[in-house]
Amino acid sequence: MSLNKIKKIKNFKSKKKLVCLTAYSKSFTKILDQYCDIILVGDSVATAFYGMKNTKNISLETMINHAISVKKYTNKSLLVFDMPFNTYNNIRDATKNVKYILKRVKCDAFKIESNGRNLSVIKKLVKLGIPIMGHIGYTPQFKSKFKAQGLKEKEIKNLIDEAKGIEEAGAFSIVLECVRETIAKKITSKINIPTIGIGSSKYCDGQILVTDDLIGMSGFYPKFVKKYINLQKLVKNAVKRYRDDVRKKKFPNRLNSYN
Ligand code: KIV
Q1: How far is the CA of 124 from the centre of ligand 1 (A)?
Q2: Which CATH class is domain 3-228?
């Protein structure tokens, strides 16, 4: 764990926007590490990579195997491990699992989704010297309906209180997912740690996206996703050309053969 990296990330607040993306494998990490401040081994691997219907069933072992691959090419970015569902239900489980993960992967920090009841878990892990990133708003492990957060007065108050609570518990940053623009702006101005938005407006201190969405490979593109490339279309085209070449006996040619 690099505490210097954590300090650097905290210093971004209001100075420079944090650039964050998810990674599940070494090949993507090799590219991402050159441009990102934070790389998250997200439990979105469940839906984006394994085609599961939600993120609740991804196992700790599967997450660890992806993180081991990502760690191989993470040099300059901060590597965050997303704690999967049911691995931090109480202080004892969270501590045991975090220690186990650290033995297997030398990640820099852990992300914990908020369910309104796990501040004590964050507090304890921070006390043990484990850097924690919070996650509020639409938290896929605990909410079934995908929708914008912060519409009603009570919900707005809860979001602000949760953000403040997570900061007080000692987290070094917080992901705001699908939080309405005005509320994301308010939270960002009220706390001293960086907010990282996903569908939560330009007012956050940084942005994160699921890389598979950004490159057009996931098939799930909510309005907050900007597809920077349609890789699905490019791959489809390449595979079609390969098929045609094989059928027409154009591939392999002499150059692709051992003579
Ligand atoms: O799992 C994930 O990819 C995430 C990001 C969307 C923040 O939690």
Answers
A1: 23
A2: alpha beta
